[in-house]
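Regression test case RT-17, inverse folding.

Input:
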């Protein structure tokens, strides 16, 4: 599109916006009725079309996010070492890298699931080599 065409379109859009702003709701409704249209029905159909477009956009965005996440996420380890070895590996990772941090629930003792989850996260972050099972 040429610069002149863009300027022309911008001018037309500005005139339409100005005309719409200066026209009262009653005048707009009257024009719809003059054209044989039901203003309430047109408004409902437009709202439904907008809702459908927004819903479709959101579905496609979620699908795209899931696809990117699936494509970029490293697989969770399918086998883990024994719990005591997991504890050693996790503690070693935190000692090696002081910038690593995790939150614990009110000083409670970590469950086996907590240790496994922390291990999986550190493997995904590349802080623990999953082949260090021995």
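Golden output:
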């Amino acid at each position: 599109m040429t610069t002149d065409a863009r300027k022309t379109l911008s001018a037309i859009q500005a005139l339409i916006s100005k005309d719409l702003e200066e026209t009262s709701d009653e005048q707009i409704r009257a024009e719809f009725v003059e054209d044989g249209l039901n203003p309430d029905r047109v408004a409902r159909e437009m709202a439904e079309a907008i809702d459908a477009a927004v819903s479709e956009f959101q579905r496609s965005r979620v699908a795209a996010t899931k696809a990117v996440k699936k494509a970029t996420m490293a697989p969770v380890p399918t086998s883990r070492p024994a719990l005591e070895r997991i504890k050693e590996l996790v503690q070693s990772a935190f000692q090696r890298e002081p910038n690593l941090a995790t939150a614990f629930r009110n000083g409670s003792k970590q469950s086996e699931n907590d240790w496994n989850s922390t291990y999986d996260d550190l493997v995904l972050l590349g802080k623990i080599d999953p082949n260090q099972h021995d």
